[in-house]
Design goal:
heterodimer; A: 341 residues; alpha/beta; Rossmann fold; Udp-n-acetylmuramoylalanyl-d-glutamate--2,6- Diaminopimelate Ligase, Chain: A, domain 1; 2 domains; five-stranded mixed beta sheet; 23% strand; B: 703 residues; six-stranded antiparallel beta sheet; 24 helices; 28 strands; 39% helix; flat
């Protein structure tokens, strides 16, 4: 089982690991006990992460067989009301179904150590399955790195076989070294640290327009470009230029009538202009965006609610965007030394 | 230059119409009725003859030589017309038609296309989306303006077509004449720089006036304008001064107007006189067209009333004009000829009952005074005032004895002074409604004189560590960062000859202590992280640390606070530097302007820059002379040069610093933002110290 305190960190390891094992000729299975991102496909609730993995690993099983339980509000109510029993045994059964005929089955953690606990399906519980081994991915944070790893060690005990650190900045070198020393004393393997890469936190213009309900009004050919940062343009034009220059790969959110801000953004490294308030930009500005190759997205919402929505989207940022896949695989292969037997 | 436009042998009107209410009809009628002596050829495939002239199916069918085509067809048809024009060997096309850049992406592409075609085929494009052009000396009215302007020596160019018609209309009533009248439209090919070059040696033009919303190529403008203003004055309005105005301009033109301060600096450096409003533009232009330049700023004010005299004096002061004391001979003449109640000192008051004779006497005396560079003559309508006769006397004397000294009049009032004003207009003496406007115009004349006298100065070759700076900058670019760490910025400016405080980058508290001991207390500690741009806000700066213990505590506390406030930031370490409080704080800054390139800023640190906005700007390239003026320009300059017995600061050190930063930007044009804040300036001869520097690089967007 690959587990972590964040879904993002699980995906960043699980997917390339599965691909690597496949490329070594192994039959690889995938199972996710608890799905927290439900989406309805053909009348059935399935998990988005599961769908993504199924597609990218070319799994033959139907999506609903790959997931123990897709959590909905009603189920939580049933558990709380005492009308439902822990589905742990069913989940175990489903998992062993998947594992049949496989060299290895990779089990995805719930996304946090407490997730699924109400159903008796927390990562700890799943780890109790006899043949299960645990790979813990710590997301680098200076203040919590050691605590995260120690907590994992306390929770999983002997089951914990190895650690990977994700989002490690170059400056964290010293801390990683300290961690390694400690791990070797605990007899836990350290498989490596994946460096922080801004691209992985990025979201495509296309995805943004889908989520925000925006209309792309120019350079539709550029909607697959990735946005890493967001900036709001509400200042005077002289400060705007200074401000926009300090950030690259960004989307700028501003009113459709702020032609000065729009032009300043187009002058700098901008991937998308998000125009709020339902105001269309002036024709000459549109022409300039066309020339510089920056898509403009028209929204009816105001700037502040757009920002909230963006926070929501980027807060749940996952690896589901195809553009990031090759990057994930590249980072994993370059930085992680792991042998699975 | 632009001969095909201003002096064509023949003009074809493509899209000519019989209907004078249509643009194609109006232009043809203007050409014919304006009295243009060259060939006029209507082009319209569906007509045999228009306004008594044979009409052609296309320009190629015109048998005679044609140098210019005026194009009035729908935007979509323009490329075909341009192609035809090129085949006919026409060298200039004035595209009146709208529907180009101003209309959106499709129009933008169309505009690009016609310019590209023109470039490939050797044809210049004027406009599109413009009113056209007029040359009053060849009687060429290739515009759809409703009137032909009067002949005169002012050339006027405008980015706004509507403004052109308004000004034309008004100029007729005001009796202002033009040599050339040019509506530039979208400036797709021919722009303000082409016009300046064309008018530079135009004998009919004494002064170039213009209205601009943006400048296409700031560096080229700077170069050409600097040359032209040595030949004749250039007065320009740049609209979009305010933030809201700039926004309106950008929405209109689709180009980021750039900082207004950059325009002001560029105008100043190139000798262009900036007018704030249309009134000023024509006030100045009129003075330049009709009066000689003064030798200096010494003005004699002549009046028949005390109040306006005082107002004129105030206005002179406000415009940095002097009211000199007259020489002995002048005073004698005035004393002898004027009544005892008159004031014979500057401003000279010939008092209310003055007839033309007193004005004549005073004019004669003042114009011969060697201390006087020019006159402002005021007249208010009193019971006996002879407005008409006085106007005649002013015109006569200023052109005779006073030739070479400018005389500006302000006949204040309405009906009673009207006959006098009429004479002044006829005799080409500029008259202004108020003394303030006369004084402003005199100052403009004086500025042009100073422009002609000014020495350019030079740009010295400096000994700098280009290789070292290049190494750092390349590394930053390789890591695909745009912001240099403060530590890297410090190394870059240091390699360009700036003194920086002693110090080091450390990663633990004990090393911090040992660096502090080396540099000596007090020390300053600052966090170094690519994610933290505002160090102070997150607790990443500690000043005045006096002991080992304070340094150790500061290190721990800083790590704790920064960790709390920006938990995901990557920390490279902390710099420990010697703290310097000696000297006066100044700021040297640079921001790359979209139109002018590297624009440098200078100001005194702290509230002077932040609150009072007491800063000066220069566009690169600038000379040491420019730099010197830049430093002197701020209001707080006395704080540097020394007040109340204070020793002057090392001003040459500041100038040297600015020249070094300019060299850095010459060498690394990818620098888009740069600040040394503060630069501590010691006393004269003691040098400067760059305490903190910040550099941002450009990352162009691919595709």
């Amino acid at each position: 089982m690959v587990t972590s305190t964040g879904q993002f960190s699980i995906g960043i390891v699980l997917l390339p690991l599965a691909l690597k094992l496949k490329s070594e000729g192994k039959k690889v299975g995938y199972f996710k006990p608890v799905g927290l991102s439900p989406v309805v496909v053909d009348g059935k609730a399935v998990d988005k992460d599961v769908l993504f993995m199924k597609e990218n690993l070319g799994l033959s099983e139907p999506a609903e067989k790959l997931c123990g339980i897709v959590v909905t509000g009603e189920q939580i109510d049933s558990m709380l009301g005492g009308n439902m029993k822990s589905p742990l045994n069913d989940v175990k059964k489903a998992m062993s179904e998947i594992d049949k005929g496989k060299d290895i089955t990779l089990v995805a953690g719930a996304g946090s150590l407490e997730a699924g606990a109400i159903f008796g399906l927390s990562d700890c519980k799943i780890a109790e399955i006899p043949e299960m081994k645990v790979l813990f991915v710590a997301r680098y944070e200076r203040k919590t790195l050691f605590d995260q790893v120690a907590m994992a060690e306390q929770l999983f005990g002997k089951k914990l076989t190895g650690i990977i650190v994700n989002c490690a900045p170059p400056a964290a070198h010293g801390e990683i070294e300290k961690l390694k020393t400690w791990l070797s004393r605990q007899k836990i393997s350290f498989f490596g640290a994946i460096p922080y890469d801004e691209l992985l936190g990025a979201v495509s213009v296309k995805k943004l327009s889908e989520e925000l309900g925006g209309e792309i009004i120019c350079r539709k050919d550029k909607i697959n470009e990735l946005v890493e940062h967001f900036m709001v343009g509400a200042m005077n034009v002289e400060s705007a230029l200074k401000y926009f220059r300090r950030q690259t790969n960004k989307a700028v959110i501003t009113g459709g009538d702020r032609s000065d801000i729009q032009l300043a953004a187009l002058e700098t490294h901008t991937m998308c202009l998000i125009l709020t308030g339902g105001l269309t930009p002036s024709a000459p500005v549109l022409a300039r965006a066309e020339e510089t190759g920056v898509p403009m997205m028209l929204l009816n919402a105001d700037t502040s609610s757009t920002l909230e929505k963006i926070e929501e989207i980027t807060g749940h940022m996952k690896l589901r965007e195809k553009e990031k896949l090759s990057k994930v695989v590249e980072l994993f292969n370059r930085h992680i030394k792991i042998k699975v037997t | 230059m632009l001969e095909a436009f201003f002096n064509p042998r023949g003009v074809a009107v493509v899209g000519a119409s019989r209907d004078r209410t249509k643009v194609g009809g109006s232009i043809l009628a203007n050409l014919i009725e304006g009295g243009f002596s060259g060939g006029i050829y209507p082009v319209n495939p569906s007509a045999q003859e228009i306004m008594g002239r044979k009409s052609y199916a296309d320009v190629m069918s015109v048998p005679d030589p044609v140098d210019m085509a005026v194009v009035v067809v729908k935007a979509g048809l323009v490329p075909q017309v341009i192609d035809d024009c090129a085949r006919k060997k026409i060298s200039g096309a004035v595209v009146i038609s709208a529907g180009f850049k101003e209309a959106g992406p499709d129009g933008y592409r169309l505009e690009k296309e016609i310019v590209k075609m023109g470039m490939e085929k050797g044809l210049r494009v004027w406009g599109p989306n413009c009113l056209g052009l007029i040359n009053t000396f060849t009687k060429l009215n290739a515009s759809f303006a409703h009137v032909m302007p009067l002949q005169g020596n002012i050339a006027f160019l405008s980015q706004s077509g509507a403004l052109c018609t308004a000004i034309l209309d008004w100029s007729i009533t005001e009796g202002i004449g033009f040599s050339k009248f040019a509506s530039l439209g979208n400036k797709s090919d021919i722009d303000e720089v082409d016009l300046l070059e064309a008018l530079e040696n135009d004998e009919d033009t004494k002064v170039i006036a213009g209205y601009l919303e943006s400048i296409n190529d700031g560096q080229k403008f700077l170069k050409v304008a600097a040359r032209v203003t040595r030949k004749k004055p250039v007065v320009l309005i740049k609209a979009g001064r305010s933030a809201a105005g700039a926004k309106a301009a950008s929405s209109h033109t689709g180009s980021l107007a750039g900082a207004d301060s950059a325009y002001s600096a560029a105008f100043k450096q190139s000798g262009v006189i900036r007018a704030e409003a249309l009134e000023e533009l024509f006030d100045y232009a009129m003075a330049f067209a009709r009066q000689p330049l003064p030798q200096g700023r010494n003005v004699a004010v002549l009046t028949n009333a005390g109040g306006p005299g005082i107002m004129a004096t105030d206005a002179c002061q406000a415009n940095a004009l002097n009211l000199p004391t007259f020489n002995e001979a002048t005073l004698q003449k005035l004393k002898a000829g004027l009544p005892p109640t008159a004031n014979i000192y500057n401003p000279v008051d010939v008092i209310g009952d003055a007839l033309v004779d007193r004005y004549e006497l005073a004019l004669d005396a003042l114009l011969s005074d060697s201390f006087v560079d020019g006159l402002i003559v005021l007249l208010t309508p009193q019971a006996m005032t002879q407005a008409k006769e006085t106007a005649e006397a002013i015109a006569r004397l200023s052109k005779g004895k006073g030739a070479g000294k400018p005389v500006l009049a302000s006949f204040m009032g309405g009906e009673k002074v009207a006959p006098g004003i009429k004479i002044l207009k006829e005799k080409k003496v500029p008259n202004y409604l108020s003394p303030e406007r006369a004084a402003g115009s005199f100052a403009a004349l004086a500025r042009q004189t100073e422009r002609l006298k000014r020495t350019e100065g030079n740009i010295p070759v400096l000994n700098v560590g280009k290789a070292k700076a290049g190494e750092i900058i390349n590394r930053v670019m390789k890591e695909s960062r745009v912001n240099l760490l403060s530590w890297e910025s410090r190394e870059v400016v240091s390699s360009y000859g700036f003194k920086v405080p002693a110090g080091k980058l450390v990663t633990d508290a004990e090393s911090a202590v040992s660096v502090a001991r080396e540099t000596g207390f007090p020390v300053v500690m600052k966090i170094v992280s690519p994610e933290i741009l505002h160090k102070t806000e997150v607790g990443g700066v500690r000043l005045k640390l006096m002991s080992d213990q304070e340094v150790r505590d500061a290190f721990e506390l800083m790590m704790y606070r920064v960790g709390k406030r920006v938990p995901n930031a990557h920390i490279n370490g902390v710099t420990v530097e010697a703290m310097t409080s000696a000297g006066r704080e100044v700021i040297l800054g640079m921001s790359k302007d979209p139109q002018f390139g590297h624009v440098f800023m200078f100001g005194l640190g702290g509230i002077y820059v932040e609150v009072l906005k007491d800063v000066s700007f220069r566009v690169s390239p600038f000379t040491e002379q420019d730099c010197k003026e830049m430093v002197q320009e701020i209001r707080a300059y006395p704080l540097l040069s020394g007040v109340r017995g204070q020793t002057p600061a090392d001003i040459p050190g500041i100038i040297d610093g600015l020249m070094r930063l300019q060299q850095l930007c010459f060498d690394f044009p990818q620098i888009v933002e740069l600040d040394i804040n503060p630069l501590m300036v010691n006393e004269m001869g003691q040098g400067t110290l760059a305490v903190d520097a910040r550099i941002t690089l450009e990352k162009p967007r691919e595709g």
